[in-house]
Design brief:
By secondary structure, the chain is mainly alpha-helical. The chain has one domain (32-184): Four Helix Bundle (Hemerythrin (Met), subunit A) (Up-down Bundle). It has five helices and two strands, in the order E-H-H-H-H-H-E.
């Protein structure tokens, strides 16, 4: 039904091993700074994601099938729907900001594997932002819709599309994790 966004409880914060490649220290320091900044947005999303998922489940999950008067339900829960839209917007913005940091880090003079990893991380986060934007659009549409059959169809459509985008993001993340695992000399954990 609902595709939740899970962010790792323990985040691997990358430090690029300066000795692992023949580039200037300044580029490495700048890349580390950008990665740290990107990771701070990911950490913020981890804090917001659980609340967003729980609120989404509460408002649009299985309980929605028990609602008899949708107009009243939406009016009664207007503040919660507004909060959900706001939270999804925060997730989207943080993902976009993190993607921009990783994208910038991917363009610096670091090892090819580090550049590739940062590029993959940027792609993953852009996909997550896309899914979060989709959630906002869906919730706004759900609140505005008055036809129960259309609401039901919208839920199914949202779940299918959202799951596909999140799968793409997870697949990209897995490529990045594999790249790190296969090239430990280019990365070290803090």
């Amino acid at each position: 039904m609902l595709t939740k966004y899970f962010y790792p409880k323990t985040l691997i914060i990358l430090a690029i091993a300066a000795f692992a490649f023949g580039c200037g220290n300044q580029a490495v320091e700048e890349a580390n700074k950008l990665v740290d900044e990107g990771n701070s947005f990911i950490i913020k999303n981890g804090e917001i994601a659980t609340k967003t998922g729980n609120l989404f489940d509460e408002l649009v999950g299985d309980n929605v099938t028990k609602v008899e008067d949708f107009v009243e339900y939406k009016e009664t829960n207007k503040a919660k729907f507004d909060e959900l839209i706001s939270l999804a917007g925060q997730l989207e913005k943080n993902s976009q900001d993190a993607a921009a940091k990783f994208d910038a880090a991917s363009k610096l003079d670091t090892s090819a594997k580090v550049k590739e990893y940062n590029g993959l991380k940027a792609q993953e986060l852009k996909k997550r932002a896309e899914a979060q934007k989709m959630m906002q659009t869906f919730v706004k549409g759900f609140v505005a819709e008055t036809d129960v059959e259309k609401m039901d169809a919208a839920i199914g459509d949202y779940n299918t599309k959202s799951a596909a985008i999140v799968k793409e993001a997870n697949d990209i993340a897995a490529k990045g994790e594999k790249l790190m695992k296969d090239n430990p000399s280019d990365f070290k954990s803090n």
